[in-house]
Structure formats: C-alpha cells, structure tokens
Amino acid sequence: MKTVLILSGGLDSTTLLYDLIDQGKEVYPISFDYGQKHSKELECAKKTCEKLRLDHKIVNLTSLTSIIDNSSLTGDIGVPEGHYTEDVMKSTVVPNRNMIMLSIAVGYAINIEASSVYYGAHAGDHDIYPDCRKEFVSALSKATELCHYNPIYIFTPYIDMDKGDIVRKGLELDVPYEDTWTCYKGKEKACGKCGSCVERLEAFERNGIKDPIEYEVD
After folding, report:
1. Are 152 and 109 in contact (CB under 8 A)?
2. What SS3 state is found at 17?
3. In the chain, where do the E strands start and end?
4. CA-CA distance, 209 to 180, in Å (whole number)?
5. Residue 39 sits in which domain range?
6. Under DSSP, is residue 155 helix (H, G, I), strand (E, B) or coil?
7. Is residue 211 situated within a structural domain?
8. Can you tell me the mean pLDDT for 148-156?
9. What pLDDT was estimated at residue 29?
C-alpha cells in the first residue's frame, strides 16, 4: 500500500493526501522547490505533513530555475490576473514541470519499494497545462511501467473533477484548507485576482462556504 504523492501544498494535492490516507494507503509525500514565486505553498505542505506525522521530502530544484524561467511563476514575467479560461494564463506554464517532478517521484517510489505515484491533476487544468491531460498521464505511465523491474503506476484520480468537486470531497474528509496555499503571487496574503485564486474562490462559493484563508481583496 506504499505510494508516493506529489504534494505542492495547494488545495488539490492536499485533498488528495487526505483522500489517500482515508483509503488506508501508506503515503510518502514529496514536494519541490523549483524557484516558484509562490514558495509559501512549501510551508503549507511541510505544516500539513508535520500535523499528520508523515515522512515528507522537499527536493531542491532551484539549480534548474534558470532553464525553466520562461514562465510567470519562475521568471521575470508578471503573474497575470484573470480567469484560467483566458489565454494570458498560459504564461503560468512552467516548462516540463510535471514530467520533471514525476520522474523524480518515480525514482523515490522505486527507492522505497512503492508501486505508485499520485498527483493532483484535475479537469480545470486541461485547457492550459499540457502535462495535466489524460494523454500525457497515459503516455508517461506506460513509460514508468517499464523503467524498473517492477512497474510503477501513475494515478490522477481527480483528472475528471473540477476544483469545486475537489473542495466538496475535501469537506467530506475534513481537510483543513486554512493550511493550504493556492495564490501564484508570493505575498503574505492571497491576491484574490490571479487565475488560481479566482478558481479557488469559485470552488468554495459553489460549495456554499467561505474560503478560510485571508485575501488582499474581499
């Protein structure tokens, strides 16, 4: 029942963490510092794992930042405001981020004799994030089934769910969303204006409750 989870510290992966634990899985969370402006998410991931007494790894990938800086999350480009449906949000794509992270997570899984790796790709990501599409997951999983003596499987159980569905699931699991971070801007409070914040606020609104984190705007 050992599994590795890519835990960003955000809403989706934190919900998935609680979900996997609820299913009785032995979860080994792994997070990545790739020079993201919103590194506060790593503090949230660490806090969550400390609460749950989990063996949490944070991998330093900042040596790669200079070769994946053609993104508003890692480079000099300003983080755009607006909805994810807007074309401008494509600037938040970090070159090959998920494939890099998944490759390392698979190595970790092999090392601890786990048979699977999970990550929180969901339906809301598909339009602008190529590495969150079913086709990508399927292709990479085929490769990881062959990369070792025993197959390693990649799972994305939220791939057909939007953020509102994920919040609904998390509320059933009593996920402490005050310990998660979603905003793409590296500030003390969430901006409430970037695509990630807008989507998060809409998800809580759909479930008829107030988001427990603080925002710069009401």
Report:
1. yes
2. helix
3. 2-6, 26-33, 57-60, 116-118, 153-155
4. 16
5. 2-206
6. strand
7. no
8. 95
9. 98
The vertex-196 CA angle with 192 and 199, nearest 5°, equals 85
Residue 93 maps to a domain: yes
- CATH number, position 6: 3.40.50.620
Residue 95: inside a domain, yes or no? yes
What integer pLDDT is reported at residue 133 of this predicted model? 86
Query: Which residues, at least 6 apart from 82, have a Cβ–Cβ distance to it below 8 Å?
Result: 88, 89, 193, 194, 195, 198
Number of domains in the chain: 1
In whole angstroms, give the CA distance from residue 62 to residue 40: 15
**DSSP 8-state class, residue 190:** B
The predicted structure's pLDDT at residue 127: 67
| Angstrom distance (rounded) from CA 104 to CA 147 | 12
Q: If you average pLDDT over residues 45-72, what whole number do you get?
A: 97
Which alpha helices (DSSP H) does 23-162 contain, by range?
40-52, 97-112, 134-144
pTM (2 decimals)? 0.95
Dihedral over alpha carbons 27, 33, 34, 38 (to 10 degrees): 110
Q: Count Cα atoms within 13 angstroms, Cβ side, for 95.
A: 10
Element (H, E) at 163: helix 163-172
Over the chain, what is the mean pLDDT?
93
- What's the distance, Cα to Cα, between the start and end of the chain in Å? 43
Q: What is the pLDDT of residue 131?
A: 84
Whether 215 is covered by a domain: the verdict is no
User: What is the per-residue pLDDT for 126?
Assistant: 60
- What confidence tens digit (pLDDT) does each residue in 120-145 have? 999 876 667 888 888 999 999 999 99
Structural tokens at position 182: 């979603």
